[in-house]
Amino acid sequence: MNEESSWLMWAIPNKYIQRYFFLMIGVLFVLPLLTGLRYTIIGYTINYLFADALFYRWCRQKIEEDKIEARRKHFLGE
Q: Using only C-alpha atoms, what is the Rg of the chain?
Protein backbone atom coordinates (compact mmCIF):
# COMPACT_ATOMS: atom_id res chain seq x y z
CA MET A 1 0.00 0.00 0.00
CA ASN A 2 1.50 3.33 -0.94
CA GLU A 3 1.30 6.41 1.28
CA GLU A 4 -1.16 8.19 -0.98
CA SER A 5 -3.84 5.60 -0.34
CA SER A 6 -3.02 4.98 3.33
CA TRP A 7 -5.71 6.24 5.70
CA LEU A 8 -3.25 6.89 8.54
CA MET A 9 -0.93 9.03 6.42
CA TRP A 10 -3.66 10.83 4.48
CA ALA A 11 -4.17 14.60 4.67
CA ILE A 12 -7.48 16.27 3.85
CA PRO A 13 -7.31 18.18 0.56
CA ASN A 14 -7.93 21.92 0.96
CA LYS A 15 -10.96 21.62 -1.30
CA TYR A 16 -12.76 19.39 1.25
CA ILE A 17 -11.76 20.93 4.60
CA GLN A 18 -15.09 22.72 5.09
CA ARG A 19 -17.05 19.51 4.49
CA TYR A 20 -14.75 17.63 6.87
CA PHE A 21 -15.29 20.08 9.72
CA PHE A 22 -19.04 20.12 9.08
CA LEU A 23 -19.12 16.31 9.26
CA MET A 24 -17.04 16.17 12.44
CA ILE A 25 -19.10 18.82 14.22
CA GLY A 26 -22.26 17.01 13.17
CA VAL A 27 -21.07 13.58 14.32
CA LEU A 28 -19.38 14.67 17.53
CA PHE A 29 -21.72 17.42 18.77
CA VAL A 30 -25.00 17.77 16.85
CA LEU A 31 -25.89 14.06 16.64
CA PRO A 32 -25.60 13.53 20.42
CA LEU A 33 -27.67 16.66 21.08
CA LEU A 34 -30.44 15.53 18.74
CA THR A 35 -30.56 11.97 20.04
CA GLY A 36 -29.87 12.67 23.72
CA LEU A 37 -26.72 10.52 23.70
CA ARG A 38 -23.76 11.28 25.93
CA TYR A 39 -20.38 10.17 24.64
CA THR A 40 -17.51 9.07 26.84
CA ILE A 41 -13.92 9.79 25.83
CA ILE A 42 -13.77 6.38 24.16
CA GLY A 43 -17.10 7.08 22.47
CA TYR A 44 -15.79 10.36 21.05
CA THR A 45 -12.63 8.61 19.86
CA ILE A 46 -14.48 5.74 18.18
CA ASN A 47 -17.00 8.08 16.53
CA TYR A 48 -14.22 10.38 15.36
CA LEU A 49 -12.25 7.50 13.83
CA PHE A 50 -15.37 6.04 12.22
CA ALA A 51 -16.43 9.39 10.70
CA ASP A 52 -12.87 10.07 9.58
CA ALA A 53 -12.64 6.68 7.86
CA LEU A 54 -15.99 7.24 6.12
CA PHE A 55 -14.88 10.69 4.96
CA TYR A 56 -11.61 9.21 3.68
CA ARG A 57 -13.49 6.64 1.61
CA TRP A 58 -15.90 9.28 0.26
CA CYS A 59 -13.10 11.71 -0.52
CA ARG A 60 -10.98 9.09 -2.30
CA GLN A 61 -13.93 8.28 -4.54
CA LYS A 62 -14.67 11.97 -5.14
CA ILE A 63 -11.04 12.66 -6.09
CA GLU A 64 -11.14 9.83 -8.64
CA GLU A 65 -14.39 11.20 -10.08
CA ASP A 66 -12.81 14.66 -10.35
CA LYS A 67 -9.80 13.19 -12.19
CA ILE A 68 -12.09 11.40 -14.64
CA GLU A 69 -14.07 14.61 -15.23
CA ALA A 70 -10.85 16.60 -15.79
CA ARG A 71 -9.63 14.01 -18.31
CA ARG A 72 -12.97 14.13 -20.11
CA LYS A 73 -12.89 17.93 -20.29
CA HIS A 74 -9.30 17.86 -21.53
CA PHE A 75 -10.15 15.25 -24.17
CA LEU A 76 -13.19 17.21 -25.39
CA GLY A 77 -11.27 20.50 -25.32
CA GLU A 78 -13.58 22.25 -22.90
A: 16
d(CA 51, CA 28): 9
List the alpha helices (DSSP H) in 3-77: 17-25, 31-35, 41-76
Q: Is 70 exceeded by the pLDDT of residue 43?
A: yes
Inter-residue contact 7 to 1 (CB < 8 Å):
no
What is the number of other CB atoms lying within 10 angstroms of the CB of residue 51? 17
Q: Report which DSSP code applies to 2.
A: -
The reported pLDDT for the residue numbered 5 is 64
Residue 4 confidence class, pLDDT cut points 50, 70, 90: low
Nearest Cα to Cα of residue 43 among 22, 26, 23, 27 = 27
The pLDDT of residue 40: 92
